[in-house]
Hints:
Blueprint: H1 6-9, E1 26-30, E2 36-40, H2 49-99, H3 106-130, H4 135-157, H5 162-180, E3 197-200, E4 204-208, E5 218-223, E6 235-240, E7 244-245, E8 247-251, H6 254-258, E9 264-267, E10 274-275, E11 280-282, E12 285-290, E13 294-299, E14 304-309, E15 328-332, E16 335-341, E17 348-355, E18 360-370, E19 376-380, E20 383-391, E21 394-402, E22 408-416, E23 424-428, E24 433-438, E25 441-449
Antiparallel strand pairs: 1-2, 3-25, 4-25, 5-6, 6-8, 7-10, 8-9, 11-12, 12-13, 13-14, 15-16, 16-17, 17-18, 19-20, 20-21, 21-22, 23-24, 24-25
Helix pairs in contact: 3-4, 3-5, 4-5
Amino acid sequence: MFSVLLFLLSPALAWIPTEDWGSGNVTASKGDSGQCVCHVFLPDTTFPADRVEHMQQISKDMIIEVEIQINKLVSYEAKLEVYLKDLSQLTLRVGMMESSSDKYIKLDFELLRIELGEFDALVSQLKESLNVSSPLFDSLYTEIQNMTMIVNQLETYDKSNLELIRIEFAKLQKKLEDCQQDQNFEPDFGNCNGTGILSLSKPSVIQLNYHLSSSYVYGGWAKDSKPLRGSESMYVYGGYTSPQVHYFYLYPNYDRLILRSAFKTYTLPSGWSATGNNFAVRGHSIYYQRNSNEMCKINVTTDKYDYRVVSEASSSFSYTYSSSQILDFAGDENGLWVMYATGASKGKIVVAKLDEKAFGIEKKWSTEVYKQLAGNAFMACGVMYATRSVDLTTEEIFYSLDTRTGEERHLSIPFQKFQEKYSYLDYNPTDQKLYMYNNGYYVSYSVKFNK
């Protein structure tokens, strides 16, 4: 405790409330010279100046941070106003498009012009490579010129008729597809008296899938290998972004396929979705894989579903390009087939012939092909063919097993790929073509047999 003279310290003590000066802390007395002296006793504590300084610094930092956040809000508000304005304009444009009878835009015509130009170049290349002049080429060239004129006219005065030109365009594309095949490919439907596949044509790239999405790289497209009368031209497509199929789209003919106009869509119900991609169409029924070892069947006439379990099929083995392809269905001149690998076969492909009426396995054959090393496999004239990659643009048929004789052969039949990976490859006996789903594109090949 200490004492101070009041008259000396009165300025410094002015901040102390007088009511806090207890009677025991202040005393008065008379000094030697007769002056009045007050004695004040203060607690012996030090004022926490360091803590006050720390709090002041924190307060400054918080003020700076608040200013930064306020500036951000101002910036965000300005951006939001721009975005709202753009959104308003976009909404107005969409509304105008929806209310307009003109459903097509300039891009449609530009795409048609580009493709017609490609067809023109293709006809010229075919004519030069084959070194022939025929009425067929002249007719195609004339049709291309006429189509170009029609496109220009329609864009000028009547864009609503673009659907009509698309139909004509699809017909022209089909003619070009047929013309593009090597003239040595002469189909002999139903004849399996030869010694097997000799070669494949160059790939015919039809178009991108129904969804117009490059991410739909898993799936397939096919024709009925044993069509009912009136459904000879039917096409089926199913695709997704993963090795699954949730929908099947049915098209009555090639033109409707090109126009992406399905006459029937199957939405697979809960518990019936397809796993893997290698489905097959036969007898107006779609055969596909459910889970890992269940064969499923949809009758597209009666909408009836059925399934069978292939207990020995192992989910550990799939093709190189796609996972989950445990059961691979195929239809050819000799019937309906399913291919898979088992634990007992140590991953080698087993070929099984199916009884179409009983929907069960009738007979099985073992192969020497490890499924995981094969790109895919298909059946043609009772012969199983396996493929593998040669490089980014080339695939080859490297193995065959004839189920009629049990003969195995090692082959080297190369063919071009449009793009590196594909998830579907299936042969159709009605037109002797291979159907490939190549990274989201419909691709086909004409098959030449050794007679």
